[in-house]
Amino acid sequence: MAVRHQDRHRILLAQEAARIMADEGVRDFRLAKRKAAERLGLPVNGTLMPRNTEIEQALIDHQRLFNGAGHSQHLRLLREAALEALDFFARFRPRMVGSVLSGTAGRHSSVDLHLFADTAEDVVLFLIEHDIPFETTERRMRVGSDEYQWFPVYQFAAGDAPMDLVVFPEKYERRPPWSPVDAKPMRRAGRGEIQALLALDSDPV
Asked: What is the pTM of this model?
C-alpha cells in the first residue's frame, strides 16, 4: 500500500512538473520538480521525486492532451525554422537538440542549435554581418561524469521562432554534452533527420 501511495505521489509530481515546464516555460527539471512539490504540498524527497525521463513522458502526454493539433502545428513551425537555420549557419556545422527535436516543445520553447567554431566571436561577427540583433547569455552543461562547463549562448528571433545558439569549441563536435533528461550523450540532429521528422509530421494518420 505504501509503495502504491509513493507511486501516486511520483505521478502527481511528474504531471505538475510537466505542466509547469509547458505552461511557464521552465527549462530546468530540478526547478520544475521543486515548484511542483511546493504547489502540491509534498516534501522534496529523493525517493519521492520522479525521474527526468518520467517528467518528459508526462510532458509529451500533457502536450497531446491539452494542445492537440495546435501543438503539432507549432512544433512543425519550429522544425521548419530549425531547418532554415541549419542552412543559414551551415559554416558552423549546426545541429538541432532539445525539445523541438524530442517533440516536447511548447509555446515558450526555443529552437536550440549547437554550433562549432574556433572562437565564439566567429559566430558573433557572423550575426553582426547579417544585421541580426541578439542577446548574449551562458548555459551550464554537463560534459563529464563530474564535470560541468559554461558555454556562450546567442538568442534572437527568426520570425515567430525564438532561437538559442549554443557555441562549442570544435573538439565538442563529436563529444556532445550529457542530456539533462537521461544523462546520456545529448541527441543531435542534422538536416536529414529534421527533414525526416517534417515528412513524418506530414503523413496522414
From this structure: 0.84
In the sheet with 147-158, reading across from the earlier edge strand, the strands are 95-97, 111-117, 161-169, 147-158, 135-144
More confident residue, 23 or 112: 112
**What is the pLDDT at residue 22?**
86
Of 13, 42, 66, the position where a domain reaches its end is: 66
Question: Taking the chain, what is the end-to-end CA distance rounded to the nearest angstrom?
Answer: 41
pLDDT tens digit string along 18-52?
999 988 888 889 999 999 999 998 877 767 789 99
Residue type, 48: L
19 and 76 fall within a common domain:
no
Phi, psi dihedrals of residue 134, rounded to the nearest 5°: -145, 160
> What's the rounded Cα separation, in Å, for the pair 63 and 50?
18
- Using alpha carbons, select from 105, 93, 98 the residue that is nearest to residue 167: 93
pLDDT at 53 over 80: yes
Q: Is 42 left (phi over 0), alpha (psi -120 to 50) or beta?
A: beta
Residue 59 sits in the same domain as residue 93 = no
**What confidence category does residue 138 fall into, taking pLDDT thresholds of 50, 70 and 90?**
very high
Within 49-147, residue ranges assigned H as helices are 52-66, 68-88, 99-102, 120-129
Identify the pLDDT of residue 202: 64
> Where in the sequence is the domain holding 84, given as residue range(s)?
69-202
Q: How many angstroms separate the CA atoms of 185 and 23, rounded?
A: 27
